[in-house]
Design goal:
The protein is an all-beta fold. Helices cover 2% and strands 47% of the residues. The strands form nine sheets. A five-stranded mixed sheet has the order 29-36-35-32-33, with no helix packed on it.
Length: 404
């Protein structure tokens, strides 16, 4: 009963796969189809790193940059837009910075700990933190005038900053490393917490100071006081027996929905998924994403989700949080409920419908039109709670269905 009530109360926050997905390729002006990283500047423009340079998208057309324009190398590993719209680009050979007119580059001779820069983050004060993903290289920090080096652990892949300004590092070997004060490091790992894995791939800290920790086995969540909340191992549905979801990147939209990019290398399969606090909903190539090799994602200021793959760039348009209605009217009826072999759906008008499980996974083919009084076979469904999704006036109206 408690589980039933929980999902009943939260069912009004479900979302549908009715977002439009638009794809972009080199034939549209991208410098390359192999996307490696994405960020947005303060004006809402999209900056895309690829294996052959950088593309800038203003919403209408692409402008491309490569070594001939002053970038230190064409194989872009990371990209980040600064507080003043400067663009930082990490490569295997150092960092290049675009000021709107020219590119300026830095390498180990300039003060970097390592030339390989796999991620770039910027703290509240505007300092630039470059993660190197090598043994003992740590993180190089640029304050606008000079470089310094912090060495919290091995193979640092990214970092983020909490409400106190503390840096949280994602180490592929050492778990989560926290710098609480002037190189006073502490670890959160599988030995002292319920962290799902010590192989940390990304960290996002939200406005409530919750830590969303991406790992090579799923996502772990910690609260404002750094206490463990929960683990998520199945955010994107993989073919059995594979279940664990290696997280590539994490972002968040203005509705506080967490978005993750997931890719399983040995399966050559991946997608993106978002979490609304109740369920996960995923998108992949079957929904229109440009390819299965998902490399990165970024949520822009308009809540569009940009997804990078090795075969193109995808833009998932936003779905407002009020686009779903849990039906409490008399317009639709579902009975018997609970059901065993069949359920009868009555509606005042003909509509589209489909069924999802508790995790938002579609478990039946969409029926483009059904009559006002239709019988649905439920024998193929395992016992549990499902949602019948009716599409009416571009809104999704949901009925809970219990199958015995």
């Amino acid at each position: 009963m408690r589980l039933l009530l929980f999902f009943l109360l939260l069912s009004c926050s479900l979302f549908t796969k009715s977002q439009n997905i638009e794809n972009f390729y080199s034939t549209d002006g991208l410098v390359s189809d192999f996307i490696t990283c994405i960020d947005t500047d303060n004006s809402g423009n999209i900056w895309i790193g690829t294996n052959n340079g950088v593309s800038y998208f203003d919403g209408t057309s692409f402008t491309n940059y490569n070594v001939s324009d002053g970038i230190i190398d064409n194989n872009i590993l990371s990209i980040k837009c600064g507080l003043n719209n400067e663009v930082y680009v990490g490569t295997n050979f150092g960092l290049s910075v675009y000021n709107g007119s020219n590119w300026l580059s830095y390498d180990i001779l300039s003060g970097l700990s390592d030339n390989k820069i796999v991620n770039i983050d910027i703290n509240q004060g505007g300092d630039v933190w470059c993660s190197h993903a090598n043994f003992s290289s740590g993180v190089s920090v640029f304050d606008g005038a000079s470089w310094s080096v912090i060495n919290p652990g091995n193979f640092i892949l990214s970092c983020d900053f909490d409400v106190l300004g503390n840096a949280w590092f994602a180490s592929l070997l050492d778990g989560v490393i926290v710098d609480s004060a002037n190189n006073n490091f502490s670890n959160i790992n599988t030995n002292n917490s319920n962290l799902i894995s010590n192989g940390i791939t990304d960290i996002l800290i939200d406005q409530y100071n919750r830590k969303w920790v991406g790992t090579n086995s799923g996502l772990s969540v910690f609260d404002n006081n750094n206490n463990f909340i929960e683990n998520h191992t199945i955010m994107y549905s993989l073919p059995p027996p594979d279940t664990l979801n290696p997280v590539v990147e994490i972002d968040i939209d203005s509705w506080n929905r967490i978005w993750v990019a997931i890719y399983v290398g040995y399966l050559a399969e991946g997608g993106v998924a978002f979490y609304n606090g109740s369920i996960w909903q995923d998108f992949d190539i079957s929904d229109g994403v440009a390819g299965p090799n998902v490399t990165c994602l970024k949520v822009d200021y308009n809540n569009n989700v940009w997804v990078g793959t090795s075969t193109g760039l995808s833009k998932i348009t936003p779905l407002p949080s009020n686009s779903l209605i849990f039906d409490q009217s008399k317009k639709h009826k579902v009975f018997p409920n609970p059901s065993k072999d069949y359920a009868i759906i009555c509606s005042s008008i003909n509509q589209k419908l489909y069924i999802t499980d508790l995790y938002g996974k579609k478990v039946s083919l969409q029926i483009d039109r059904f009559s006002n009084h239709s019988e649905m076979n439920t024998r193929s469904l395992s016992a549990g709670i499902y949602f019948i999704n009716l599409i009416e006036n571009n809104q999704r109206i949901v009925h809970r269905l219990v199958v015995n």
